[in-house]
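QA checklist item 7 of 12: single-chain prediction sanity check.
[x] sequence parsed
[x] length recorded as 413
[x] structure emitted
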Amino acid sequence: MKIDLKLLDSLDKSKTYLLACSFGPDSMTLFDVLLKNKFNFVVCHVNYHHRDEAESEELRLRSYCDQKNIKFYLFNAFYQNEKDDNFQAWARKERYEFFASVYEQVGANGLFVAHQQDDCIETYLMQKYKHKMVAFYGISPSTRILGMNVYRPLLNVSKQETYDYCEVNDIPHTIDSSNLSDEYERNRIRHHQVGPMSKKEREEVLKEVELLNKKTNELKKKCDDIFGEYDVLEVAKLKALTLEELKYVVFRFYARKLTPAFFKGEYVNEVLKMINSPKPNIRTKLGNEIYIQKEYDEVRIFEEKDIISYTYFVTEPCILDVSQFKVNLKCQKAQDLIKLSDYPLEIRTSKMGDKYQIKDYLAKVRRLFIDWKMPSYLRKRWPLIVGANGRILYIPRYRKDYKKVDEEIFSIK
C-alpha cells in the first residue's frame, strides 16, 4: 500500500488527533496505520441507526478500541426525514459537528479521515458531470473544516487495497450495506464507473485531476495576488480579468459567506452585469439572507444581519464588545470626547433626521455617510455615540479599511 507517510511524518505525534472511524475497511486500515506509527489518537464513531448492522458495528469497534487502549467517542444520530433524499448531506453535517465538539473537548491538533483513492475519483467524476466550480478537484490531502485541521493520508490507496490490508493483518471490519445499493449518485458512479476501471484508466483520471489542480493553483495564486482576502472586489480590477479568472474570483468571493457546493454559474453573469452597468449602486440576492452589491467602484458581499439596526445603553465608561463593534470608552481619547455628565449613553445606528456637529455647523448624518462614500449596508449598521441630552457626541470616521477605523476607541466588525 502507498500510505502518504510524508503527510504523517510532517505531523507532531505528541499531539492528540481524532480518527473518524466507521468500522469499514478504510477507517480500520487507517486505525492500524496510526497505531503502528505511534500516533496519539481517539476514535470518533457516529451511529446513524440507519442500517441493521449499525448496533453490532458500534459494539465491535468499541471493543476493539478497548483492546488497543484507544479512547472511544460515540454520537447517536437519528434521521427524521425518511422521505427526504438529503440523508447524505444531513449525515455529513451531523458527523462533522460531532467531530468539532470532540476536537475542542480534547484539544486536538487534527482529524484523520480515511478517504481513499476511489473516493477521490468518485468525487472528481461527480464534479465533472455537474460542471462544478471548486477550489480543489477530487479530494485534498489536507484542509480545514469547522476550525479543524483535516488530514487524509490514504488518498494513494485504492478501496481494494484497504480490503486486502485488513485481511492480511487480521483487522476486524464490516462492509457498509448501504454502499452496495445504487440509491445514491456516488454509489452508482462507484459501481458502474470507478469499480470496473483498469489500472491505466485510474491513472489517466488521476493525472487529469492533478493537471486541473495545478491549473487551479496557478489561477488561485494570480487572483490572490490581485484581491488578497476577497473582502472587497474593485470594479476596475474585475474588468481587467479574463472570463476564466472572473469565474474563479466570484467563486472565491461567494465561498466567503456561503457553501461553495451551492455556487451557480449565473452568479458570474450577475457580477458581469454589475461591473458593466453605468449605475453606481446595484444589489442582488444570492441566497438566503446573502447579498452582493456594487457601490461606486467596489463590489461587496454581505448578510441580512449586517443591515439590521441596534441600540446599546451604557451607564459608565467601559469596554463594550458586541457583534457589530468593540468600543473602549475607558481610553484617553474617549474620555477627552465624552464627559461623565454625558452618561448614560446610547450607542446606536443612525435615524432619519440625525445631525452631527462638525466645527461650526450641523451636518446631516446620512449626507455625511454619502460624502464619505460609505457603502449603503454599512450606513445601516454604523455606530453613533449619543449623550444623555440626545446630542450625537461621536461618529467614527469611515475609511475603506473600516475594520480598523479608530482602533483606540472603535473597531468595527
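[x] summary fact logged: The first helix runs from residue 5 to 9.
[ ] second reviewer sign-off
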